[in-house]
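User: what does the whole thing look like in 3D?
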Amino acid sequence: AQRVTQPEKLLSVFKGAPVELKCNYSYSGSPELFWYVQYSRQRLQLLLRHISRESIKGFTADLNKGETSFHLKKPFAQEEDSAMYYCALSGSYGGATNKLIFGTGTLLAVQP
Amino acid sequence: KAGVTQTPRYLIKTRGQQVTLSCSPISGHRSVSWYQQTPGQGLQFLFEYFSETQRNKGNFPGRFSGRQFSNSRSEMNVSTLELGDSALYLCASSPSGGGFDEQFFGPGTRLTVL
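Assistant: Here's the predicted 3D structure for the full assembly of 226 residues, as structure tokens:
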């Protein structure tokens, strides 16, 4: 079964501390992994995706196929990073599709 | 470029009624997907349309249906509403049909079923 697991509902850190948001997935194939973010009173938006291998706003994520994980990391958290973070998976399902399977999300709270 | 728009933003219906939600994708985007967001189940995929054809469907009952028009605008319909259909319905558009695209989300339609 295709599944994305985010074990932490809430992660609270202090400004300047490192951040790691965990994401594990289950998919029988080669999925594409994404992190989406929703800031307060804003729309859900893409933060980064594995295929781009970019660092956005200081965040990075490495796909570990052996551990089926795609953890999101940032070395020094900022207060403006406080938001809801969703890990998502997209697979081929036998044809092109933009279907996303989302995790339940982790609320990141960065304390001053 | 204008973002994805959804109408109406809020809707209150009673059980047994039906409802139609509308989504206008970003100009030039041909793929439109719909998601249901609830506190209990999180974000769940409903269906995706590309070039007026349903390309993928989630695990929802047949009461949930959708369509896409030639201008890529999309509607979803829920018939015989149940209390459990109360949710935020999100629409997302993507530029191409190749899959694995970045999806651009609308603000959502908040549906309350009484």
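In plain terms: Residues 35 and 48 of chain A are 5 Å apart (CA to CA). Chain A has a mean pLDDT of 91.
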